[in-house]
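Field guide to reading this record: the first block holds the primary sequence, the second block holds the structure written as discrete tokens, and the final block holds curator observations. Each block starts with its own label. This record concerns NADH dehydrogenase [ubiquinone] 1 alpha subcomplex subunit 3, catalogued under organism Pterocles burchelli.

BLOCK 1 — SEQUENCE
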Amino acid sequence: WAKEPVMAVSIGIATLAMVSLLLSPYNNYLGMINWAMLYTYPVLLWDDGEMLDVPSHPCDKKGLSLEWLKNL
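BLOCK 2 — STRUCTURE
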């Protein structure tokens, strides 16, 4: 490592970036937002009654509410 300090520093910065992303408190909120937004966008697919995870109409909101995000 003493012969290539640039490599050591770049690996250290990359490791620090990865660890800080995993430990960031925003990561938890980002995951909750992504989970809640799963079915709140218009779906271009109509439900024929056999698809349980698809809204029956493209404008129907199905999924978790984002009220907790407004209350932060």
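BLOCK 3 — OBSERVATIONS
The chain is about 50% helix and 0% strand.
The radius of gyration is 21 Å.
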